[in-house]
Design goal:
mainly alpha, Four Helix Bundle (Hemerythrin (Met), subunit A), 6 helices, elongated
């Protein structure tokens, strides 16, 4: 699976979600992440095709949304407790799930977080936590309003 922007949909396109533009004062790595689409629908469409229906992909997206706060909270707690092993576990979970759901921007941010954790820079991870929270919320919004069908 690729986290490239080809054929990607940005969740802000619906006008409902938080704007995709990065905030001022971001470092190069964060602005690099901000240049990517929030959501690459091609990844989810590939999953639909691989499974032969939309049901599995829709359920995966709903599960992703349901446990987003748990993933974010686990990362924040691990960093708050200066637990590098737990932080790496949280970052890998964040990265892999983001890649699988087509969350290109969040996946790239998680790659940056992984580098920081490997380098022992938990203060650097701590500085990125607001971007993780914002990007995760944009991803959830993109899935809810740009991919999943409206609830009946």
């Amino acid at each position: 699976m690729s986290i490239s922007g080809s054929g990607a949909a940005d969740s802000s396109a619906s006008g409902v979600c938080v704007p995709a533009s990065g905030s001022s004062g971001m470092a190069h790595n964060e602005s690099e992440s901000a240049a990517l689409p929030v959501l690459d629908l091609d990844v989810l469409h590939d999953l639909e095709e691989d499974m032969g229906s939309t049901g599995v992909a829709h359920n995966f997206a709903r599960d992703y949304i349901r446990i987003w706060d748990k993933r974010r909270t686990y990362l924040e707690a691990s960093v708050e407790h200066d637990d590098a092993d737990a932080a790496m576990d949280a970052v890998l979970s964040l990265k892999n799930s983001a890649m699988m759901v087509g969350a290109s921007r969040l996946a790239q941010l998680a790659v940056n977080l992984e580098r920081l954790v490997k380098g022992g820079d938990l203060p650097g991870v701590r500085r990125l936590l607001p971007f993780v929270a914002l990007t995760g919320e944009q991803t959830v919004c993109g899935l809810q309003h740009g991919y999943l069908p409206p609830e009946a």
